Structure to design on (170 residues):
């Protein structure tokens, strides 16, 4: 199953240095709950659109991780990884985002398909969003506007062999 793992640049460094991320990990995937939501709101959504929705949920979760990691660059990071179906469990909690999953066990760099990272042009918007993401989660419209500004930036795609070079350039 393809899972989208929210991360930070610090997490990327750990992945490169250790060759793996230690589980369990929280991520996002195309789950029955996500499919059901889109069946009601956008019946025409195909698999690619559902995967993109899971990636965007992980990107928002990345903002929350950046908030608690002062050493991380102010750029959202999402890792697309493949995990065995048996290692992925949908989170059945009404307070979690649709598509939230728990991945048991470690995720090796060899199972990471790609990294998705904000460009330098997003840093100011991400910095502002990190400061208010929890308020947005609690329903503040003003905070949501700030988060929307950050979410308006497209994440750049990086192959796994490019992650080390990317980190050197940050």
């Amino acid at each position: 199953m393809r899972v989208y793992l929210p991360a930070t640049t610090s997490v990327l460094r750990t992945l490169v240095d250790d060759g793996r991320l230690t589980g369990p990990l929280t991520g996002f995937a195309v789950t029955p709950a996500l499919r059901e939501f889109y069946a009601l709101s956008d019946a025409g959504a195909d698999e690619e659109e559902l995967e993109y929705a899971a990636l965007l949920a992980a990107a928002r979760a990345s903002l929350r991780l950046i908030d608690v990691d002062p050493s991380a660059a102010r750029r959202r990071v999402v890792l697309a990884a493949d995990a065995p179906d048996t290692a992925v469990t949908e989170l059945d909690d009404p307070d979690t985002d649709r598509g939230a999953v728990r991945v048991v066990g470690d995720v090796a760099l060899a199972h990471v398909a790609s990294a998705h990272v904000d460009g330098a042009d997003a840093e100011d918007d991400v910095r502002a969003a990190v400061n208010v993401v929890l308020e947005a989660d609690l329903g503040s419209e003003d905070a949501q506007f700030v988060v929307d500004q950050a979410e308006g930036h497209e994440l750049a795609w990086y192959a796994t062999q490019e992650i080390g070079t990317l980190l050197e350039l940050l």
The CA atoms of residues 94 and 170 lie 37 Å apart. The chain has a mean pLDDT of 93. The beta strands are 2-7, 20-21, 25-28, 77-82, 88-90, 100-103, 107-108, 112-117, 156-159.
